[in-house]
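Each record in this resource describes a single protein on a pair of labelled lines. An example record follows, reproduced without changes.
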Amino acid sequence: MEKGKKNADAKVGNEASSPRAGALQSALSVELHTHYAIRLWEGRKQSDSGEHEKKRPEIISMPKAIQRAGVASRDSASDNPYADMVLVKLETTLHMASSKISTIVNELDVILTAVPKGITLSDIASAHPLNISVYSRSPLGYRCVWLLVGYDQLAMKAFQAFHYGLISRAQRDQYLNRGGHAVRQVYGAIQPYYTVAVNRSDIINLTACGKEALARLGEPDPDIFSGKKRSSFSSPLREHSVRQSEKR
């Protein structure tokens, strides 16, 4: 009897002392070196136009883009097909924009190496870069940040190439505009998103929430609704939702 009690106590003791991992933590910060990238980080409010001036549209800030990507990811996890649609659009736009900026950076790298022998150009950086801490609830939010850092690199290389006479002012501005347009396209993909409390079941069963969402936002993309097309950063579609979608 005593022996059995001793073994039981030992088992409890081993369970109590077994090591457990705590919550995973990681901090991230980025450095921006150019005013062009910093302005895109900060965004732009809609400007008031004069009688003969064109009104400039609002450009959301990077923190707002990150926040909306996080909201869309949260809604996607709640089986919202409209959130899935915007995440697919955001990921697709990010891929195209990243490819565009990478291509331009590679072009500028080739230009910067086309100098006579005996000349070495050091890497360019700001004497006082802006250091920003970043947190996103969505991997796509971080992808937006990577894109802006890439544009910052593009801008630095464009100014360096112009400074040393390797490209003209017009070429420099063209590179800057092409890269900036790519970032703004990504902002445009997430800017219109807002939460609508609806899920696939609501739409299939035409509940009050489902009818309202259909009236305001239209029919969801069939491939996205069925789960055939989905962001690679979204959780798998629930089996119950897949079965219901197949019956629709």
User: Anything to note?
Assistant: The mean pLDDT is 87. The radius of gyration is 25 Å. Strands lie at 28-32, 130-134. The first helix runs from residue 2 to 17.
